[in-house]
Design brief:
It is a single chain. The protein is an alpha/beta fold. The chain has one domain (about 5-230). Helices cover about 30% and strands about 30% of the residues. It has helices at about 15-25, 45-55, 55-65, 65-75, 80-95, 160-165, 180-185, 235-240, 270-280, and strands at about 100-110, 110-125, 130-140, 150, 190-205, 225-230, 245-250, 260, 290-295, 300-310. Strands 1, 2, 3, 4, 5, 6, 7, 8, 9 and 10 form a ten-stranded mixed β-sheet that branches. Helix 1 (about 15-25) crosses helix 5 (about 80-95). It is globular, with a radius of gyration of 20 Å. The two termini are about 35 Å apart. The relative contact order is 0.15.
Length: about 325
């Protein structure tokens, strides 16, 4: 199972996120599944192998992260999905087992844009051309809602995302308009499509939120998990938490890898967190990501994470 203490070895937050892109558990499982071909899911063992083969490079990068930081600054974005893609692009360009051939390759049919390929690369492990559609997603379980799994912005849902990925995006190479750009880019239309979907699923906070459970037919039982609660329920949640823990409200670009924080000054006790959250929701409706932290080996290490949502969410 995914253990936050494994992340203590990575001192630079951007490098930690880079490793997380490959090493964190997939949201998608690889067992027989109804409707979606399981061979269209990136194999987690492949990702683990890529990390193992490049571990020395990663350690050097952690000691001297300027190449990665320069790359991220050059492609700076406020959007978490774009940040995730930029980290993956850095991986595919620098790993010895991959050659990145195209990113966001647009396919047009006359004046109509049919779609775009997220990533196309040469895979030297299995000797083939790979087409990856990628996403980093955060869904909250709302058992009473007809769509069941909703994003912090409830206009987004897990089922809608799965439908788009498997029934549209991964089929793009089959469109007649894709032939010419693929030949020009890659010299071939023979691509192996797969989805890489990372992220977390969040369960209503109660005594069972950490229990290993299968979220839906298509989701791995090893998925990363957290809790969620409405703002009015946060005081009760905090009352049940360890008094020695500290808390942080995470900006969106820090939602990927587990938090390892080395400074006492910026962490909050439970009373300070409750006050900040209460003040925030007096004038805001967007969900907040918060993490609980324990003091381990002279750092504050993430214990759990969760969303605090407006009392009217998802309405």
């Amino acid at each position: 199972m995914f253990d936050p203490e494994d992340w203590l070895q990575w001192r630079n937050p951007a490098v930690r996120d880079l490793v997380w892109v490959m090493l964190s558990p997939s949201l998608l499982h690889h067992e027989p599944c109804d409707g979606h071909a399981c061979e269209q899911r990136v194999n987690h063992a492949w990702c683990q192998y890529l990390v193992q083969q490049n571990i020395d490079w990663l350690k050097r990068l952690d000691n001297e992260p300027r190449p990665l930081l320069s790359w991220l600054n050059l492609h700076q974005s406020q959007y978490l999905g774009r940040y995730f893609e930029n980290l993956l692009s850095f991986w595919l360009q620098h790993a010895t087992e991959t050659d990145l051939l195209a990113q966001n390759l647009v396919v047009s049919d006359g004046a109509l844009q049919v779609g775009e390929f997220d990533f196309i690369f040469q895979d030297h492990v299995y000797s083939g051309l790979r087409h990856w559609e990628v996403a980093v997603k955060f869904y909250l379980h709302a058992p009473e809602h007809p769509r069941a799994w909703l994003g912090p912005n409830p206009n987004d849902s897990l089922n809608a995302k799965l439908d788009k990925v498997f029934n549209q995006q991964l089929l793009l190479a089959q469109h007649p308009a894709a032939e010419q750009p693929l030949i020009e880019c890659c010299g071939s239309t023979d691509l192996v499509p797969a989805a890489l979907m990372k992220g977390y699923l969040f369960y209503p906070f109660d005594a069972t939120w950490q229990a290993q459970q299968v979220a839906t037919t298509y989701i791995s039982d090893q998925h990363m998990r957290g809790w969620w609660c409405r703002a009015a329920a946060l005081p009760e949640l905090l009352a049940q938490s360890d008094d020695a823990w500290r808390w942080m409200i995470l900006p969106k670009l820090r939602w990927l890898s587990p938090v390892v924080y080395r400074f006492e000054s910026d962490v909050l006790d439970k009373q300070s967190l409750a006050a900040q959250v209460q003040q925030y929701f007096q004038s805001n409706r967007h969900a907040l990501m918060v993490v609980s932290l324990a003091h381990i080996d002279d750092v504050w290490l993430e214990v759990s994470r969760g969303f605090v949502v407006d009392d009217q969410w998802p309405n």
